[in-house]
């Protein structure tokens, strides 16, 4: 299909979302050029054309925005697309109604009052319809279409008599008007219902067209081309990432086993839902939609989860059934223990315990689809993608699991769980997104990517600030401070950790990290003040803080105070703690114990400057100035970590004087 230009719809955006395309949306309708041409050709050529496909595959959109614009009004006479679902308001008439289906169809074609249409047949109406001719005075074909034609076969409250009368009227009209062409658009599960009437309606000239989901290239076209009339466009690989996500389905069993499926088609309704949500979520100043935008904003499962919530809410309010009951029924009935789609057949009044009115409402909203098997109507979920949306675990459950994975250094698992949390959250849940960005930052630190970590932390801090979450900002600042500490950027660490400690005064890890940063910039007494204050509140159970305070006290030649702390953390056999305790023992005159612990610390010291300096001081205290000078020189050259400047000066004093 070729359009003369692209225009945004009445909402101001180029995607229609959940609703079907209308005739005026032809400038936004892409990816169905071949199907539109074929159906237009079949409709004009055959007495009966049946267009069928699954719910949500885009039959109504194709008919209105794809096929109708291709029909030349000088060569064919096209009546408005009709429906046969009766509107109760039409039946308020004193004139006898021969068929409610006929009255509904004629009301689609004419604005006349129901009383004027009630006694007419389809042929009567067409007989009165002005005949049109082409430029050669030859009659031109009249095209009529019934959308959602499965409504003829839904039964109650009208039944077989009305249906047979209506079909007879259609056949009579087709027989009387040689140029009349009928198109029926319907869900594929109702195909068996039309077969008994195929011959009488088609009269030897009939065709069938099966509408399938988008193939990849068509999906890309339907994603990219609506933007041609806007100031935005997709950058390199961005549209491809979005479509790939729509073609990728992740399923979890009840035991947590994960299966990733790649499907061949893309459901048009899902593509529209996701693209519309992406458009709405982008900041106003974005003109090129990048891979990062898609990754951040176009989370398909999250959008589908939002779609499910809206649909369940609508059905619950419309039919006065608790939303939680409907969700639980969907989960219990249509999701197996293996995390795959299950099925259920429709009973006389209920389907697996749920009133059929609810089931039909969910089908109308593209959450369920039906097909006939062995004389019964069977339901299943519209798509595998809806499994995760219906199960919808609380995002905090995923975040908590991600934090546990972080504590175990399971970086990939932590990232995947965090991505699941984002998918499970409402799109506008800034709190979940902020927590996720913070965890992504921690993952980047764990995988050795400080640049990404810094960017993620900045994004998290910004979101927490918008939410006025001082605790969140404090946690992120503490993480940035620890990252700076690990990179040897001690002034930045002091700044970030001071700000963090002000926001989360009860967080011992932040206080300990601040003390460590202060020690590194040559402020050991300030570090002690921080640690004393924190430990006075938290008690002696926080080993990292005790170990750090003990080490600082040893460096400041306060062995008794140092040993009080370091004796409490003897089970923490870190080289820095061992070396600090050894120095305190040496300063206290317990030389044998000091020498043994110093040897243990040096054996695992590597290039740790503070450990090597403490060992050097022990050697000098024990009377071996030469060995002490050698270790002091190693401490000055050490890099993991390097000596703070105030300890570097202490090390220089142990070197031989020239």
UniProtKB/TrEMBL annotation:
Gene3D superfamilies: P-loop containing nucleotide triphosphate hydrolases (3.40.50.300), Tetratricopeptide repeat domain (1.25.40.10)
Lineage summary: Bacteria, Bacillati, Actinomycetota, Actinomycetes, Streptosporangiales
UniProt protein name: Tetratricopeptide (TPR) repeat protein
Record-annotated Novel STAND NTPase domain positions: 14-388
Pfam family membership, one: nSTAND1
């Amino acid at each position: 299909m070729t359009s003369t230009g692209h225009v945004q719809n009445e909402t101001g955006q180029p995607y229609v979302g959940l609703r079907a395309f209308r005739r005026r949306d032809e400038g936004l309708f892409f990816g169905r050029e071949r199907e539109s041409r074929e159906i237009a050709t079949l409709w004009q050529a055959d007495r009966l054309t049946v267009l069928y496909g699954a719910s949500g595959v885009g039959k109504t959109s194709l008919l209105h925005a794809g096929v109708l614009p291709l029909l030349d009004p000088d060569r064919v006479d096209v009546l408005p697309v009709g429906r046969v679902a009766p509107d109760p308001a039409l039946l308020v008439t004193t004139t006898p109604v021969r068929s409610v289906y006929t009255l509904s169809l004629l009301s689609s074609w004419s604005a006349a009052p129901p009383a004027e249409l009630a006694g007419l047949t389809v042929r009567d109406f067409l007989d009165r319809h002005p005949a049109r001719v082409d430029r050669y005075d030859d009659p031109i074909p009249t095209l009529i279409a019934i959308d959602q034609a499965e409504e003829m076969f839904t039964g109650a409250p009208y039944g077989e008599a009305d249906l047979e009368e209506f079909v007879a009227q259609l056949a009579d009209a087709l027989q009387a008007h040689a140029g009349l062409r009928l198109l029926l658009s319907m869900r594929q599960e109702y195909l068996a219902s039309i077969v008994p009437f195929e011959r009488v309606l088609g009269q030897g000239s009939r065709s069938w067209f099966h509408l399938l989901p988008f193939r990849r290239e068509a999906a890309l076209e339907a994603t990219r081309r609506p933007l041609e009339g806007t100031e935005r466009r997709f950058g390199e690989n961005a549209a491809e990432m979005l479509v790939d996500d729509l073609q990728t389905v992740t399923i979890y069993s009840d035991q947590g086993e994960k299966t990733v499926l790649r499907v061949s088609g893309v459901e048009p309704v899902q593509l529209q839902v996701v693209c519309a949500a992406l458009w709405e979520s982008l900041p106003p100043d974005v003109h090129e939609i990048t891979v990062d935008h898609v990754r951040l904003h176009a989370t398909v499962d999250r959008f589908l989860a939002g779609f499910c919530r809206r649909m369940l809410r609508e059905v619950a309010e419309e039919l006065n059934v608790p939303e939680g009951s409907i969700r639980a029924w969907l989960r219990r009935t249509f999701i197996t223990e293996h995390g795959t789609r299950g099925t259920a057949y429709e009973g006389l009044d209920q389907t697996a315990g749920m009133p059929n009115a609810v089931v039909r409402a969910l089908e109308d909203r593209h959450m369920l689809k039906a097909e006939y098997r062995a004389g019964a109507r069977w339901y299943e979920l519209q798509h595998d993608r809806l499994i995760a949306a219906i199960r919808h675990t609380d995002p905090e459950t995923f975040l908590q699991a991600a934090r546990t994975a972080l504590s175990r250094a399971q970086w990939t698992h932590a990232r995947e769980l965090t991505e699941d949390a984002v998918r499970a959250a409402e799109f506008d849940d800034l709190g979940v997104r902020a927590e996720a960005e913070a965890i992504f930052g921690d993952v980047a630190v764990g995988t050795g990517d400080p640049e990404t970590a810094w960017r993620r932390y900045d994004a998290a801090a910004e979101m927490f600030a918008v939410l006025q979450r001082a605790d969140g900002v404090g946690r992120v600042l503490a993480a940035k401070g620890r990252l700076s500490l690990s990179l040897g950027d001690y002034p930045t660490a002091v700044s970030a950790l001071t700000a963090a400690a002000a926001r989360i005064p009860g967080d011992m890890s932040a206080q300990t990290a601040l003390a460590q940063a202060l020690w590194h910039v040559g402020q050991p007494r300030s570090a002690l003040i921080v640690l004393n204050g924190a430990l006075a509140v938290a008690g002696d159970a926080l080993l990292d803080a005790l170990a750090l305070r003990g080490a600082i006290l040893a460096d400041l030649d306060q062995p008794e105070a140092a040993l009080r702390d370091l004796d409490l953390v003897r089970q923490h056999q870190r080289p820095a703690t061992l070396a600090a305790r050894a120095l305190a023992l040496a300063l206290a005159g317990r030389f044998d114990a000091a020498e043994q612990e110093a040897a243990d610390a040096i054996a695992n010291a590597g290039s740790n400057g503070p450990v090597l300096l403490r060992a050097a001081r022990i050697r000098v205290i024990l009377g071996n100035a030469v060995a002490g000078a050698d270790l002091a020189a190693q401490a000055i050259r050490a890099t993991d970590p390097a000596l703070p400047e105030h300890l570097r000066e202490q090390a220089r004093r142990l070197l031989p004087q020239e």
